[in-house]
Amino acid sequence: MGAALPLGDPAPLDGRLPDDVRARPETDFSVYLHVPFCRVRCGYCDFNTYTSDELRGARQDQYADTLLDEVALARGILSQAGSLRPAATVFFGGGTPTLLPPGDLGRMLQGVRDAFGLAPGAEITVEANPDTVTDAAAAELAEAGVTRMSIGMQSAVPHVLAVLDRTHDPRNVDTAVAAARAAGLEVSLDLIYGAPGESLDDWRRSLETVLALEPDHVSAYALIIEEGTKLARRIRRGEVTAPDDDLQADMYELADARMDAAGFDWYEVSNWSRSPAHRSRHNLAYWRGSDWWGFGPGAHSHIDGLRFWNVKHPAAYAQRLHAGQSPAAGRERPDAEARRLEDVLLRSRIRDGLPVSELLGEGRHAIAALITDGLVDGPAAFQGRVVLTLRGRLLADAVVRALTP
Description:
By secondary structure, this protein is an alpha/beta fold. It folds into two domains: about 10-285, TIM Barrel (Alpha-Beta Barrel); about 335-405, Arc Repressor Mutant, subunit A. It has helices at about 65-80, 100-115, 135-145, 160-165, 170-180, 200-210, 230-235, 245-260, 280-285, 315-320, 335-345, 360-365, 365-370, 380, 390-395, 395-405; strands at about 10, 30-35, 85-95, 120-130, 150-155, 185-195, 215-220, 265-270, 270-275, 290-295, 300-305, 305-310, 330, 355, 385. A nine-stranded mixed β-sheet has the order 8-9-7-6-5-4-3-2-10, with helices on both faces. A four-stranded antiparallel β-sheet has the order 1-13-12-11, with no helix packed on it. Helix 3 (about 135-145) packs parallel to helix 5 (about 170-180). The longest helix has 18 residues, at about 65-80. The protein is globular, with a radius of gyration of 21 Å. It starts with 8 loop residues before the first strand and ends with a helix. About 45% of the residues are buried. One of its GO terms (molecular function) is coproporphyrinogen oxidase activity. Probably acts as a heme chaperone, transferring heme to an unknown acceptor. Binds one molecule of heme per monomer, possibly covalently. Binds 1 [4Fe-4S] cluster. The cluster is coordinated with 3 cysteines and an exchangeable S-adenosyl-L-methionine. It holds the Pfam family Radical_SAM. Keywords: 4Fe-4S, Chaperone, Cytoplasm, Heme, Iron, Iron-sulfur, Metal-binding, Oxidoreductase, S-adenosyl-L-methionine.
């Protein structure tokens, strides 16, 4: 059911933002819509998601209406903090958003459109489990305004899916991609590598399967074992082996080589796109520190440096909103040092890089050694930006430590 919420100051019951927090028209605004429902819990998952027997009074069939209450509340709060801005991106995440009827997702999107408007050419993404995508569902989502589908493939190898507790039929990835294409949607495929028992040949098979499907975008994330998950308990009991760091590094290098050969460019450490036009603008908004409002249980938001987050459980979330209260549980405003560290951490991960001018003295002085060590691209640094090399992407945390002494 997800990690604990962060510590912070209590949020007011009306959700009002501090008077000095402003919705600034020059800053892009994005919307995240959290759908916290899953048929089963994957063994590695630490997200704030719930199966049917964990809902304790919350109802899936009422969820869209409840979330729309938060949208209406947010409109009033943001209108008090400055001018309303149209959403440049909208992202339905989860959980499994496509467990809800397409009509519910369409109503949620229409609620965002009515409250804030959508920017011209807005990117509208829906995450999907391959087993939940049909021709009719994809067409209905496209009709509602969705432009992009992010399909959770994870692997093409049955024994890898089994150790991850993924229950979808690998063959349904093909049909989900075909359905999305027929509806005119862009397609992203999501992969996880480094699962217990996964070999380099297994990973190569998944990559070849992905590239044969000719998606517009691919995400590939190294498996991280989160405390409290079923997979962490299995590793602790010795039932399966922990991921091997060296093997994960080999898998990343193989992925980058195969993506490059197929005409994909990396634009963030774990993300490749067929062209700049197919990059995930929603995720770039996070990495660049734009404003966003996260709707739904446990969702996080960021407005003008203020961070706040909702109560976790769908029942508590619904109870707050039905009482006319904000679902926000807490909030914080990181100080200048914390914001600087976060900015370096996030912006150094993207291909556009981090402006050298934003580093303090010791961080700037570290660049020469990072170039010598093959972690930072020399020509880009001379042009004023810190851009990671392939080796630097594998050792991104070390680069951040050097840039923020």
